[in-house]
Amino acid sequence: MTNYFPIHLNIEYKTVVIVGGGHVATQKVASLLLAKANVVIISPTLHETLVPLAESGQITWREKAFEPRDLDDASLIIAATNEPAVNDAVQEAAQHWQLLNRADAQGASDFITPATVRRGPLVLTVSTSGASPALARKIKKDLALQFDDVYEDYVCFLQQARLMVTATFEKGEKRSTALKALLEPSLLEWTRSGDIEKREAFLQQLLTGESQ
């Protein structure tokens, strides 16, 4: 079994080519758009759920059969057709610097896409390296319950609070202590209950050194 190296890629405005416009393509597109990728689909047909995205310009659909030149500008490539011969052609045409995911042959892929839970800046990913996709989906559901929608606001607050702390304190013990204090459980509780004033008051006391 392949031992994958976990990594989060910045693909903002980079071109991702998906060869195939069916069910697998629909699964990939949503995550790619969240990452602000430039999504190009090569396929004679397009799944009905993707048509509005193509019509609105959110994705590019090239209504055609695959040709090697379709990969020229791609940073990532996803071979997602139900025809092994076409996926073979995509794999053969991919350059060494282009990362390939082949939906029908994990062993031939440079990368796989894990089950993902997103809460704003918080991204939780689960992979069994292909051993049990069902287990990955189950763990994803468990994580989605544990880290509910409140975490988006909470993590965004922590992001801004961290910037304020690093701008207020020089690198050293005071900054380190203040950053650790941001993990005070009450901050999550106040976020969940909507007590934003208490949360902000805590932060201000932290910045002025009153809570130290």
Overall description:
The chain has 212 residues and is α/β, with parallel strands linked by helices. It has two domains: 15-113, 3-Layer(aba) Sandwich (Rossmann fold), CATH 3.40.50.720; 150-208, no CATH class. Helices cover 43% and strands 15% of the residues. The chain is built from eight helices and seven strands; from the N terminus they run βαβαββαβββααααα. The chain has helices at 23-34, 51-55, 84-93, 133-146, 150-168, 173-181, 185-193, 196-208; strands at 15-19, 38-42, 60-62, 76-79, 99-102, 115-119, 122-126. Strands 3-2-1-4-5 form a five-stranded parallel β-sheet, sandwiched between helices. The chain has a two-stranded antiparallel sheet with strand order 6-7. α2 links the parallel β2 and β3. The longest helix has 19 residues, at 150-168. The chain is elongated and about 65 Å long. The protein starts with 14 loop residues before the first strand and ends with a helix. The relative contact order is 0.10.
Short note summarizing the structure:
The protein is an alpha/beta fold. Helices cover 43% and strands 15% of the residues. The protein starts with 14 loop residues before the first strand and ends with a helix.
